[in-house]
Write a structure and sequence with these properties.
The protein is α/β, with parallel strands linked by helices. Helix content is 38%, strand content 16%. It has four helices and five strands. The chain has a five-stranded parallel beta sheet with strand order 2-1-3-4-5, with helices on one face. Helix 1 (11-20) packs across helix 4 (87-100). It starts with a strand and ends with a strand. The relative contact order is 0.21.
């Protein structure tokens, strides 16, 4: 699974996820030219690179993602992790998602954790 980690994402969750899945294919928005970019630009870049966006942004990212779907633009998928979800539970849910789902199963989907 190819992931793009949103810039607002909890780094403790990310570190725990990488500890559990050291070979995880991920890019962090802060490590790119997209730092500070608007949500539609982040989604467009994720689509261009076929990366599923992992975010805490429950308010705007899903809206823009569904707009891409309606407009028939590529949308590789979104995983929304509520900020109030316990860090350990968030890591477990993300590990399970990465291990059990194929990249294509999230295409045009917004998945809300916990499952």
């Amino acid at each position: 699974m190819r992931l793009l980690i949103d810039e607002n994402f909890n780094q403790r969750i990310l570190r725990g996820l990488i500890a559990r899945l050291p070979s995880l294919d991920h890019v962090v928005v802060q490590d790119t030219d997209l730092q500070g970019a608007k949500d539609p630009s982040v989604l467009a870049w994720a689509a261009e690179l076929n990366r599923i966006l992992v975010t805490h942004d429950i308010k705007t990212i899903p809206k823009y993602a569904y707009e891409r779907v309606v407009a028939r633009q590529p949308m590789p998928g979104i995983i929304v992790v509520p900020e109030m979800l316990d860090i350990g539970e968030a890591i477990e849910q993300l590990v399970m998602t990465a291990e059990c789902l194929e990249q294509s199963e999230l295409e045009n989907q917004v998945m809300h954790l916990p499952l």
